[in-house]
């Protein structure tokens, strides 16, 4: 299993809109392409730091990841969502992880 952690810094006033759009416009398509949403977190309103949304995905293998990325290129809904989301995002990152022998998530 490959784990992908997407961290997205959004404009404070856009966090709710981003999450709603993500759930309606992006998540169903991502799941159809073989991605499993494992967790989703956000910084609390009163934390005193930039608003950050974190999404942890699971993908069966590197091959499935590559296939998912390729299918995304041909999905008009995903392209539309990414264009909408661009106006809400301040910064972001994506990191890939695989479990160590100590991990209960193998």
Key traits:
alpha+beta, Alpha-Beta Plaits, 3 helices, 4 strands
Description:
The chain contains three helices and four strands. With 106 residues, it is α+β, with helices and mostly antiparallel strands. The longest helix is centred in the first third of the chain and has 18 residues. The protein has a four-stranded antiparallel sheet with strand order 2-3-1-4. α1 runs antiparallel to α3. It is flat, with a radius of gyration of 14 Å. The protein has a single domain, classed as 2-Layer Sandwich (Alpha-Beta Plaits), CATH 3.30.70.100.
**Average pLDDT value?**
92
Relative helix content: 25-40%
Terminal residue distance? 7 Å
Give me the count of strands. Answer: 4
> Helix count, per DSSP?
3
Strand order of the largest sheet: 2-3-1-4
- Beta percentage is 25-35%
Number of domains: 1
Global outline: flat
The H-and-E topology, N to C, reads as: EHEEHHE
Rg estimate, integer Å: 14 Å
Can you lay out the helices and strands and say which pair or pack?
Elements (H helix, E strand, L loop, with lengths): L1 E9 L4 H18 L3 E7 L9 E8 L2 H12 L2 H11 L2 E9 L9
Antiparallel strand pairs: 1-3, 1-4, 2-3
């Amino acid at each position: 299993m490959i784990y992908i952690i997407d961290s997205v810094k959004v404009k404070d006033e856009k966090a709710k809109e981003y999450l709603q759009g993500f759930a309606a416009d992006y998540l169903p398509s991502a799941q159809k392409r073989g991605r499993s949403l494992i967790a989703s977190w956000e910084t609390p309103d009163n934390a005193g730091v930039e608003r950050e949304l974190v999404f942890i995905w699971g993908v069966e293998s590197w091959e499935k990841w590559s296939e998912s990325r390729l299918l995304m290129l041909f999905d008009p809904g995903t392209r539309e969502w990414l264009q909408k989301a661009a106006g809400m995002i301040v910064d972001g990152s994506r990191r890939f992880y695989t479990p160590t022998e100590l991990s209960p998530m193998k």
